[in-house]
Amino acid sequence: MMKPAYSIIKSMFVALILCQAVSVYAAPTEGNHYDKITNNFTEESLGVEKFFSLTCRPCLSLSRMLPSISKQSQQTIYKTHVIFNDTTHAAATIYYSAAIQSETLPDRFISELFLLTQANAPVNGTTLTGLFNRYQLVPINKLTPEQHAQVETQLLRAEKLTAQASIMQIPTIIVNGQYQINMRAHKSLTELSDTIKQLVDLPS
């Protein structure tokens, strides 16, 4: 599941570097550039959401591109950690333990968190607790009962939406809880950003 997604993200990254100018493409079409979610979650949607997992290598690649995508699409892109199984549940717990403590986690912290989670061991002498401490975040084992409750709320939402939207491949971007973008159909970040902008404006 991960290899095709990795190829897609890698191709988009290469296109971003090599293409100085990308022509504007036609309006995105359903079934090609995006699909409608049968069991949508419009009421719970945060707007534009990237669904990912800390265990997913292509997700790290897309994470590094998010500032460019957000700028080009003129949209805030929120992050929701998928939960498929025990492994992604554990990774989601790590992510939300940090996310509840800051609305804007530093990009460098997120990158290091990806690497630590995927290594499942210290990286360059840094442990998960050490990483949290370095960014002045409370480590998971020292969260208050109230903070644990916040994490649990986020985990329940993530698990529900992962199942409700029938997410089978990550990373993916869902707009307004209704439209899941087909990453493969976009040849550049500019096209992806244009699709996001146009889907945001579609009527509910």
From TrEMBL:
- Superkingdom classification of source: Bacteria
The answer, when asked if Signal is one of the entry's keywords, is yes
Record's signal peptide: 1-26
Check the record and name the Gene3D superfamilies matching this protein.
Glutaredoxin
Q: Which UniProt keywords apply?
A: Signal
Q: Point out the coiled-coil segments of this chain.
A: none
Keyword Signal assigned to the entry: answer is yes
Name this protein carries in UniProt: Thioredoxin domain-containing protein
Per the UniProt entry, what species is this protein from, by scientific name? Answer: Moritella marina ATCC 15381
